[in-house]
User: What shape does this take?
Amino acid sequence: MNRLKEALNKIRSSSIGCFPTPLHPLKRFENSLSYQDIYIKRDDLNGIGLGGNKIRSLEFLLGQAIENNCDTVIVYGPLQSNLCTLAACACAKLNIKCICIHNAEEPTHFEGNLLLNKLVNVESIFLGNVSAEERNQYAVELSEKLKSQGKQPYIILNGATSGMGALGYTNACLEIYTQVKEQNLPIKTIFISGGNGGVAAGLVYGNYLLGQPFKVVVISVEDDVPTLRTNIKRTILESAQILGLPFDSSVEDCCLITDEYRGSGWGNNTVESEAFVHRLPQLEGIFIENVYTSKVLVGMEDLINKQKVTGGVCYIHTGGLGSLFSQY
Ligand SMILES: *Cc1c(COP(=O)(O)O)cnc(C)c1O
Assistant: This one.
């Protein structure tokens, strides 16, 4: 634990968020499942914008940007990208210029995250209906152009999933471990979502370095298991390189990954996930959205009902609330 703490302390963090985030039980949800000890880790309440996992990645990525004396952050994603909005908010706080690049037409009505982008007055570039690859290439070209004008741009690559970004969840694992010990909580299994795999990689790596105090279950919202596993592995190896603490295990041995709850893929509701978007607020007064946070709950409930989990569980709420307001 101290070894991990010391290694993380050596990496520059931009310290933008409010941590530790709350960790508390979900009593009415427990009752609805007739299952005890269901906890939620409120990473939706981490202090910037409407919160979410990307703030933890940005702590380290923007730390690196500051270390490199960067004056402009370039970030890209779909219109409702949580990363773009949260990067814009974090850059406002840090007084760094931010440019968001979207592969879509500029809409006439700004809703969800786009409304927030407007309020924070970030510079937005709408490329029209180009592919994600073309969008990413545009970001690289823009960065080169800014450099030739004497600027110091920093591009946030791959949806913030990188060895550096994932350290946010290595740090989060340490945070959860400390809360569990201090409050003597019975948590045995942690449930998280898997998009590009950055959250999962960080958590699995942190859990490994702590001697695997938790079981980690990754619910894919996007890719099939082999693809997600490959992404997680690559990211862990990058993080290990940065931190200098090796990962001498396999992803298979350190977590369970399932793609059973993603439906027809990223952004597409399933009947069960759509139902949860209504159910959780009605039980607990906590909002979730359709793309990421609802599908993890569907998977967690199903695995509990099938008795594939025993003992206390912790659901990590990764935020994404800005997009909820564009989903209806
Ligand atoms: C990006 C995101 C995730 C997934 O994170 P990855 O690191 O891409 O796996 C989960 N939840 C929300 C709300 C997100 O915005």
